[in-house]
Amino acid sequence: MSAPTLSLTKGDDGPDVGKTLPDVPRVRRRRSPLMLLSVGWLALVALLAAFSGLLPLAGYGVPVGFPRSGSTLSLDGLLGFDHLGRSVLSRAVYGSRASLIVGAISSITAMCVGTLLGLIAGYFRGWVDTAVMYFTDALLAFPPLVLLLALSSVLQPSYTTLLVGLTAVVTPSFVRLARANTLAWSNREFVLAATNMGASQLRIAVREVLPNILPPVVAFLPTVLAALIVAEGSLSFLGMGIPSPTPSWGGMIADGRTHLYEAPQLVLAPALIIFFTVFALNQCGDHFRERVDGAVRD
Amino acid sequence: MLWFGVRRLARGLLVVLFVSFLVVALLALAPGSPATVILGENATPEAVADLERQLGLDQPVWVQWWHWIGAAFQGDLGTSLVNGVTVLDAVTTALPVTLEIAVLALLISLGISIPLALLAAPRAGSAADRGVGALTSVLLAIPAFVAAPLLVYLFAIQLRWFPVTGWVPLSEGIGANLRSAFLPALSVALIEIAAFQRVLRADLVTTLREDYIDAARTKGLSARYVLLRHALRPSSFSLLTVSGMSLGRLLGGTIIVEFLFTLPGLGQLVATSVSSRDVVTVQGVVAFVAMAYVLVNTLVDIGYGFLDPRVRLADTR
C-alpha cells in the first residue's frame, strides 16, 4: 500500500478537505485614486444637478454681471459671465440637469429595451433572431449624429424628440451585447439542467439566463451614458438639442465660440466640465468592465 | 471565398433597402407636408393637395418607397424644396470637402496611433505603456465639439499657425488647402487616435505571446524587426474593422467641425437643410451617407475575410 493516495480520495474523509484545495491568496483590490476622484466628481455633478434650485445662485436666464467679464469673487461670478451677462456657473449647474437627465433616461430605457430584445433574440434564435439582428444592423448603419439630425429635421426640437432619438441610437449596442451574452450562457450546464428538470422556457430565460447577462450589460451603462452626454452636447452645439433658453453644456460651447477671442473662459468652462464628466464615466465603465470580466473568468 | 463575399454583399444590400425605407418613412412621418414648405404657410389646402398629388405624397408609404428606389437607381435623389437644386448635385459639390476632412483625420489618427501602439505593446505594464494609456484615456474624453474650439483658441488665435475658419479649395494650392483642413481634421482625429491605439495595442500584446514570436527572437532577429515584420501584420485585422466602423463617428465629427469652421461640406449641407426644414435634401443626404457607410463596412468585412480565413469559416457555422 505504498501507492500515493490521490488527493481526491484524501478529500473524502472530511476534515482534510481544506488541505487538498490550493492555497489561493486573497484578491487584493487596488483602490485607484483616479477611480475615487471620478466617482467623487460624478457624485458632485449629480448632487448639483439634483439640488440646483436650492443653491444660492442667480437664475440661469438673468443677467447679473457685465457681459463677457472674467471671474469675480462672488459665487455667481466665479466662472465669469457670458455674452448676455448671465452667470456661467449658474448656467453650467443648470445645464448639468439637461445633460444628465436626458442621458440617464435614454440610457436606462435603451438598456431595458435592448436587454429584452437581445435576450429574446439570443435565447429563441430562429426568425425572431434574424429579424431583430437585421433591425439593429439597419439602425447601426446610420452614422449616429446623422440619424439624430434626420430625426430632429422632421420632429420639433423638444425633450421627447431628443429622448427618442438618443434611445434609438444606443439601443442596438445593448441588443448586441445582451444577445452575445445570452448565446454564451444558454449553452451552460445549469441551463441544460433546468431544461431537464422541466422548467418552462420563460422561467429559464428570466431566472437562469437573465441574471447572468445583467452584469456585463449594467457595466456597459457608464460608457453609454458618456456617449450620450457627448451626443446630446453635439446636438445642442449644432442648435438642435435642448431648446433655448434652457442651458446645456453643448449649447454653452456653441454660444461661447464666437467670443473665443475676448472671453475664452466661456468655452473653456463648459469644455472642461464635459471633459471631466466624460472622463470620469469612462473610468467607471472601464473599471466595471474589468470587474465583470474577472468574475466571468473565475 | 466567393460565396462569403456574395453573402456579405447580399446582407449589405438588404440593410440598404431597409435604410431607404426608414428614410422614406421619415418623410411621411414628418408633421406638415413638404408641399407646404414649397408653397409657403399661406397656401390654400387645394393647392397643397394638388402639389402633393404631383409629388406622389398622397400614396401609401410603400408605394412612395418603390418610386424613391426607382428614382435613386437612376441617380435621382430628389430636388431641394428650398432652392431647387437637385440633391445629387448638392451632394457631389459638398462630398469632396467632407471626404478630404475624413480621410485626413483617418491618416492623422492612424499615423499617430500605430507608432503609439508599437511603443506601448512590447512594454505592456511599463511606465511608458501606462503613460500612453493615460493619454488615450484623456483623448477619449475629448469629443470633436470640445476639441475644435480649444484647438482654434490655441493654434489659430494664440499661435496664429492656422486660419480660424474658412475653406480654401484644392484648386487654390495644396498648401493653403491643407492649412485650412488641418485643424478640423485634427479635432475629429483626437478621439480616433485613442480608439485605434487601444485596439492595436491589445492585439499586439496577444500576438507577441505567440510561439512563433519566440521562435523568431531565438533565431536572433532583433526585437524591432520581429515587432514590425512578424507581429504587426497579423495584429492589424481588428484595426481595419475599427477604422471602417469609425467612419460613422468621423462623419458625425465632420458635421460638427464643418459647422464650426464653416466648411462647405455634407455636414454643413445637412445642418442648413435641417434648419430650413428642407426634408427632401435631408432625406437624400441621409440616404447617401448611410449607403456609403454600409458599402464601406461591407467592403471592410469582405476584406477582413480575405485577410483572415478564420472569419470566413466562422461565418458558415
Short description:
The complex is a heterodimer of chains A (298) and B (317). Chain A has 298 residues and is an all-alpha fold.
Low-confidence region ranges of chain A:
1-13
| Series of secondary-structure elements of chain A, N-terminal to C-terminal | HHHHHHHHHHHH
Radius of gyration of chain A: 26 Å
Shape of chain B: globular
- Principal-axis shape of chain A equals globular
Number of helices of chain B: 14
Helix content of chain B: over 70%
How many runs of DSSP E, i.e. beta strands of chain B? 0
* Secondary-structure element series of chain B: HHHHHHHHHHHHHH
Please give the alpha-carbon distance between the first and last residues of chain B. 15 Å
Radius of gyration based on Cα positions of chain B: 24 Å
What tags apply to this protein structure?
heterodimer; A: MetI-like fold; disordered N terminus; B: mainly alpha; 14 helices; about 80% helix; globular
Structure commentary:
The complex is a heterodimer of chains A (298) and B (317). With 298 residues, chain A is mainly α. Among the domains of chain A are: 103-243, MetI-like fold; 244-274, no CATH class. Helix content of chain A is 68%, strand content 0%. Chain A has 12 helices and no strands. The two termini of chain A are 37 Å apart. The model of chain A is unreliable at 1-13 (pLDDT under 50). By secondary structure, chain B is mostly helical. Chain B has 14 helices and no strands. In chain B, helix 1 (2-29) runs antiparallel to helix 13 (279-307) and helix 5 (87-120) packs antiparallel against helix 6 (127-140). The interface between A and B is large, with 46 and 52 residues.
Question: Helices and strands in order, then pairings?
Answer:
The complex is a heterodimer of chains A (298) and B (317).
Chain A: H1 7-12, H2 17-20, H3 33-50, H4 88-124, H5 126-140, H6 144-154, H7 159-186, H8 189-196, H9 201-219, H10 221-237, H11 249-256, H12 265-297
Helix pairs in contact in A: 3-4, 3-12, 4-5, 4-7, 4-9, 4-10, 5-7, 6-7, 7-9, 8-9, 10-11, 10-12, 11-12
Chain B: H1 2-29, H2 34-39, H3 45-55, H4 61-73, H5 87-120, H6 127-140, H7 144-158, H8 174-208, H9 211-218, H10 223-235, H11 237-261, H12 266-275, H13 279-307, H14 309-316
Helix pairs in contact in B: 1-4, 1-13, 5-6, 5-8, 5-11, 5-12, 6-8, 7-8, 7-11, 8-10, 8-11, 11-12, 11-13, 12-13, 13-14
